[in-house]
Amino acid sequence: MSGTPETSVNVLVPTGALGAGVRREHVWAGLAAGADAIACDAGSTDSGPAYLATGRPKYSRGAVKADLTVLMLAQAEAGIPLLIGSCGTSGCDPALDWTRDIALEIATEHGLSPRIALLRSEQDPDVMAAKALAGRIRPLAPHSDAPPELFRGCDHIVALMGPEPYVSALEAGADIVLGGRTTDTAVLAAVPLSRGAGAGAAWHAGKIGECGGLCTRRTREGGVMIRVRADSFDVEPLSATNACDPHSVSSHMLYENADPFLLTEPGGVLDVSRAVYEALDARRVRVRGSVFRPQPYTMKLEGAAGGPFQTVALVGIQDPEVLADIDRFLAQMSTVMRQRLAEAMPGLAPEAISLRPYGWNAVSGISPPAGTAPPREVGLMLVATGPDQATATQIAKTCNPLLFHMPLTAETELPSYAFPFSPAEIERGQVYEFRLNHVVEVDDPMELVRMSFVEAGAR
Questions:
Q1: 310-335, pLDDT tens digit by residue?
Q2: Are 251 and 333 found together in one domain?
Q3: Closest CA relative to residue 83, chosen from 196, 199, 165, 205
Q4: In this predicted model, what pLDDT tens digit does every residue of 389-428 receive, in sequence order?
Q5: Which of 206, 235, 310, 422 is least crowded, fewest Cβ atoms below 10 Å from its Cβ?
Q6: Domain contains 66
Q7: CA distance 121 to 394
């Protein structure tokens, strides 16, 4: 089927992230409505660097298996491709292998025999360091350079793939494609692009559909179908009780994107500044006028590594006098804690401790405007950071008496705040950080991608 004005390439997007929930009835409704492929994302950097640094997934194995079972059964029933991008949250090799093993287990349990393609986008730090020395890697904000040691200091590095590896896998006979780290849009745009749909329409449809039902009015009610043509695409919810409208569809261009009209992808820029969003009926929206402007091919690099260790402790505070002057209380506690650490554990940096008052300003770190009413209660979290777990825990233990008993003024009786746990210290383990936000120039979309196949079951 080609993406002509009369026909469309239809991609069923069952969820915004594999493991977040897939409804079987919605998927089968999409098959009945003429799906040509099933595609969805399985990863993101949204939840921080730990998943990339460790290779461990965010979602539980049971949740991913439940969703993937529905999708693999649907793929077998309809005989259409199934594409999953950014497997295992981070898309690094261990995360991809974890998803592969689940898929093989499902195939065995249900007597399925798909040909599964694996697309690996994890990168060798030494190879990336060499590319940086050759001037093939450039930084994105907030980075300003790309020294070779930056890459060698990463535990895992991934390069975000475009649609071309998925198209290559399908052309090589894959029934299911499990991809490493990929741009969210590329997974959805791959099949329409391979079957002749317009590039602007395919990329824009991929962006709108990337989070499943987030482009609908009832954002948590199932996924969507995108129908992509040469110069337009339609979006409709899979659930019969859900709906899209021009606002719900157009507003998704703002999701994880600094510019509401331009979106940079591996091979160019999607420009929707002249796009028109039209309600076809009470549930469906048609979009026209999207343009994809080719540019030299680059792939975004993400890298993460382990850092220091942390221990946390939490107290609940309801003392009205403390809460009425909480900024002074926090400043005083921080000062006294640092003084005590200097005596008991000399040599620690000031950032070894931080106080986070949940219920006041723990999220923003910005004090509320003058005159803001005192909170009814606050959960005060102490975060102790050290070079190893034992040191972090000793920092928290040193601060424990102050966290438990420190009064607002010296003249008041000694208070007791509420520890919810005993022991009070909770060891978080190692903490992680992103180390890369760069792009690498490539001569071919497959240059940094390794493709292999596994045969599930007996064919």
A1: 999 999 999 999 999 999 999 999 99
A2: no
A3: 165
A4: 999 999 999 999 999 999 999 888 889 999 999 999 999 9
A5: 422
A6: yes
A7: 40
163/292 Cα distance (integer angstroms): 14
Is 343 a member of any domain? yes
What residue type is 48 in one-letter code? G
Give the relative orientation of helices 326-344 and 389-405 as an angle to the nearest 10 degrees. Answer: 130
pLDDT at site 4: 41
Pairwise CA distance, residues 237 & 244, whole Å: 7
Determine, yes or no, domain membership for 369: yes
Q: Are residues 319 and 428 in the same domain?
A: yes
Range of the domain at 328: 306-435
Same domain, 283 and 325: no
The string of pLDDT tens digits covering residues 420-452 is: 999 999 999 999 999 999 999 999 999 999 999
User: Which residues have a Cβ under 8 Å from the Cβ of 365 and sit 6 or more positions away?
Assistant: none
CATH number at residue 342: 3.30.70
- Please check whether residues 114 and 246 belong to one and the same domain: yes
Residue 3 lies in a domain: no
